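User: Hello, can you help with two protein structures?

Assistant: Certainly.
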Amino acid sequence: MASQDPGLSQAEDPTAQEYLNLTQRVIDYLAKKGYTRTEAMLRMESANQEIDGRPLPPASEEARPKFKLAFEMTRKWIEDNLDIYRPELRRVLWPLFVYSYLSFISSLVPLEGRQFFEANKNLFLPEHTEDIRALEPVSLPEHVQENSVAKIYRNNKYRLTLSTPAFSNLVQFLESKQKEGGMVMLAILSSYCTIVTKERAADDRFSFAAMLNRANDISGIPAEDEGIPGHHPGSAYTGDNPAMAGTLPRLKLGKLPLEPTLEGDVRAELEEADVKDPPTGGRPSLVQHFEQMIKREEDEEAPTRAEIPYPPSLARDVAMEVQRVKENRDRFKIDGRTGGVGPAISVCMFTFHNTHDGINCLDFSGDSMLVAAGMAESYIRVWSLDGLPIPPTYPELEKDEGAVPPANSHRLFGHSGPVYAVAFAPSIASPDEQEVKTNTRWLLSSSADKTIRLWSLDLWQCMVIYKGHASPVWDIAWGPYGHYFVSGGHDKTARLWVTDRVRQQRIFAGHDDDVDCVAFHPNSAYIFTASSDHTVRMWAVTTGNAVRMFTGHTGNVTALACSNSGKLLASADDQGSIFLWDLAAGKRLKRMRGHGKGGIWSLTWSAESTVLVSGGADGTVRVWDVAVPAQDLASQGRVIGEGGAGTKIDAGNATAASGAQATATGVSASKTANKKKGKKGKSKEVVVTPDQISAFPTKKSPVYKTRFTGMNLVVAGGAYMP
């Protein structure tokens, strides 16, 4: 039989198939008897299958390097192509690189494969760092069968979308270079890729201006329909059938209605408050504002109390709802941006000194009275924000024998490993004269010891230990009304818990790697999980099934936050990007950049869901516009923000920004700064998208936590790193 170029299919030979079956029987026998070294040698000598199981064609020494030569030829041709085609053609190089490398290894030429990998991996590091890191150990055919990332590419076709002229141009070139290796690349595209061609339309995506802009964009953001089916950016479909990718479950994103008795009690309390303190200055009464808050849009579907059961409401629940209505009416209102001028957001920053890098996490209580820190030394420390002794909820507890005396900070001991997450139970500030206190009473913590602990802030003791995770627990989050909480850990699962039961109520399994971040939807009907596999999933609490999947992050997702309206989700990664997602449509709305690399560790929404605030490892707190699409502002060419001309923040030195607020002019500002630096090495500048309203740099304090209060004040916390 004539030899064939590597990467091309070959008809199965019955004799060869019988040989493979016999070889497999011998391998099974050797494995059963424990002859591991003999088994390994036999596998090496009999590894004559392609990465998808097809028999390899006999490859001569001259034919083996064609993967390398063909890839290099294709890459040079793409770089020399027209500017309007180059950005989309560059997206073809990644699957060609991966499948060529896996074919090298499967063809038992690991030396050439390693040289090929090392020579070209830097082309894809900004976007595919994690995949490259996972594929780097692959050096034997057995590794191709066992490596998780290799299996994903081996068992699925990579999806690409190209314009018809670009695709035709590519095919014509490869066909004209058959002898130089063009057929090898064509075989990979045919066997391992699904290419969807689209006619060039006169819209923003395919206009000359948009393509030239993408050619100059250093972000390398993939298209929304690119990648492995079911895993391409923006895909909300969670099933296995690509043909059903347009079918999404209907979501109930409306507000969870109050219990009838609770609603009646709240209304009665508000009516009494209106009589004692009538509204002035054109403000609505508390009852009117309450009616507006619980009003639901006609087309908005909401879960019922029967679907999300809660314990009967208490006097504390009534007091919290009343105080929530008061805060919502009297808050500092943040409207959508108009005329390119953002709202004057205030941030109160708490900095921790002499921590010796021992703080792993922070959380602020809902009543803005306490802050808790999870320590690497396996304990938790709680401080009062005003520096005064922390009073007990019930003064009579101070008289009990063995009661902890009041102090401005307390240590909680019990975990046997570093504490990775702390979370205060929902609470709200209450007036001193109020009989029913609504301050914080409970604290959750998770640790490397695989447990979650519930702490009483009245007794300063651990009350419950929740066990279920098989590995360290990375994150925890309370439900919006307490009672429920969710956790995510190294065992690749998220779990739903109820405070009065020690066993989990739901296990959410489906991620391919650690679950690093978790969050609740405001109506308690859904939870969100973010994983090291670069995906974000939305799960239904009632069924435990995934209802949405959002991917597109090129780094590990480090923060999640759902808007108070329940319609938008924000996710951030360690590459400095923030993505906004439309939950109902299951689509990505936009990507916002400005943070330096290292991780965005916290996200928080304003009460109106029009402004997002983030904090991260680059030592800045940044305020983002949500309502206005980024491309609209970019076309206006305005400087976003307040208080002076646009200032570029150096990712390596946040203090370079003058004043409390810094703004950005987008990609053009980055290019100008780079030109000024000349040839003094690589620039540390990061591109700031125009939807950043303002930035608050710290001196040398990574920001661990940001939080919007009910009055729309931002509270942030971090540790000073000299």
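That covers the first. Now for the second protein you mentioned:
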Amino acid sequence: MKRNKTGCNSGGSAHPEIRIGDRWKDSHGSIITIAEHQLNRVIFYREGYHSPCMCTQDRLHREFTLMEKSLLTDKSDMARVMEAQGVEKIRIINEIISRADTLTIDSQREGTAV
């Protein structure tokens, strides 16, 4: 049997990127919100719990699943595109294009140019 060697390696990260405002869920269904992310630890708040909790990135990836990514509203579109990687970058570009298309359609209805 012949092996097919394409020379291509898989790219990207195996784990989702951890960002402030992301919402994760544990195996019991409890939801947490990321408050701070550093190189060796993640600080988060559990729903209904007032004090912050802390864990490592490895434990977060092992015990929690990503539910909802935070929207980076405080950054410009270009900064969001440059910061993202892989499929996330494509999703952000498509979001920007669709938003620009709706602005164009809305301005044409009102009779103004963009």
